[in-house]
TrEMBL record:
Species of provenance: marine metagenome
A single GO molecular function term of this UniProt record: DNA binding
InterPro entries: CB, DNA_brk_join_enz, Integrase-like_cat_sf, Integrase_catalytic, Integrase_recombinase_N, Integrase_SAM-like_N, Tyrosine_recombinase_XerCD
Localisation: Cytoplasm
Entry's Gene Ontology BP terms: cell division; chromosome segregation; DNA integration; DNA recombination
Classification lineage: unclassified sequences, metagenomes, ecological metagenomes
Main location: cytoplasm
Domain Core-binding (CB): 14-99
Keywords for this protein: Cell cycle, Cell division, Chromosome partition, Cytoplasm, DNA integration, DNA recombination, DNA-binding
Domain Tyr recombinase: 120-287
Pfam families linked to this entry: Phage_int_SAM_1, Phage_integrase
Name of this protein: Tyrosine recombinase XerD
This protein's GO CC annotations: cytoplasm
Length: 287
């Protein structure tokens, strides 16, 4: 089975050629058709192009923080969704081969997943955008201590909006910096509160919730003194996002997804992120 010239021309390296030949033999040993093998090799073209762009040998492991940029690179080529899914499969297959036969120690491409019915990656806010959102809320003329606490809490914990609005004061353990969550399917989990979020929650309770705090009381209240609804939170955050001049497609879920992506980019283990998000399957957590 001949290796496509388009793939070979990217690096012109003897070692890479040798590995590609061995990989081809490996695919042949799996009783795959010549056409399937040719497609597997051809579908590595954009991946090799990206490796060349970042001065990385395709025989080296692609770091976690390069997964999204690599996917964006492929998607920006205007390739059909079905083809992108195929190309990701080819990248994962090649990387698994490299790991299995000792060319690389770590294979992060297992974290790759393409949503089947979307033409782009899920939106992710950058760290500066999160900061700008908080600043926008802070500049709002009315008292916004509750709203600042809300956004910081969602970003630092990755909680679902329904989980945030279902929180009671008793769910928070300030001494341990923990929150006890009752999530989907009535499953309980404990998440760590970030320092900023904890400070803003304390400030909100001190400023807006004067008097005795009862554990069973909802954490976030509306003007009528009852629990904020998920829809109210979504509307609130949408209002601040528009005021910030950010992408109009951003939402509360974008903040939650940003939490997961920033943790993954920082090297956090997928299983840890899965537990924090309350996902029962790692597939739901993937890039």
């Amino acid at each position: 089975n001949k290796i496509p010239e388009k793939l070979l021309s990217i690096f012109r390296d003897k070692k890479i050629l040798e590995v590609l030949n061995k990989y081809t033999e490996y695919l042949q040993s799996k009783s795959l058709s010549e056409n399937t093998i040719r497609n597997y090799l051809y579908d590595l073209t954009e991946y090799f192009d990206y490796c060349k762009l970042i001065n990385l040998s395709p025989l080296k492991s692609l770091d976690q923080d390069k997964l999204r940029p690599m996917l964006s690179y492929i998607l920006n080529k205007g390739i059909k969704q079905s083809s992108v899914v195929r190309k990701v499969s080819a990248i994962k297959s090649f990387s698994s081969y490299l790991e299995r036969f000792g060319y690389i120690e770590k294979n992060y491409t297992d974290l790759l997943s393409i949503p089947k019915n979307t033409k782009s990656l899920p939106k992710v806010m950058g760290n500066t955008e999160i900061e700008n959102l908080i600043k926008t809320i802070n500049r709002y003329p009315k008292d916004t201590t509750r709203d600042e606490a809300l956004v910081e809490l969602i970003y630092s914990t990755g909680l679902r909006v329904s989980e945030v609005t279902g929180l009671t004061i008793g769910n928070i353990d300030f001494e341990r910096s923990e929150i006890r969550i009752i999530g989907k399917g009535n499953k309980e989990r404990v998440v760590i509160i970030g320092k900023k979020a904890e400070e803003k929650i304390r400030k909100y309770l001190a400023k807006s919730r004067k008097g005795i705090l009862i554990n069973s009381n909802p954490l976030f209240l509306n003007k009528l003194g009852t629990a904020l609804s998920p829809r109210s939170v979504q509307r609130l955050i949408k209002k601040y996002l528009i005021m910030s001049g950010m992408d109009s497609n951003y939402s509360t879920h974008t903040i939650r997804h940003s939490f997961a992506t920033h943790m993954m980019d920082g090297g956090a283990d997928l299983k840890v992120i899965q537990q924090l998000l309350g996902h029962s399957s790692p597939e739901t957590t993937k890039v």
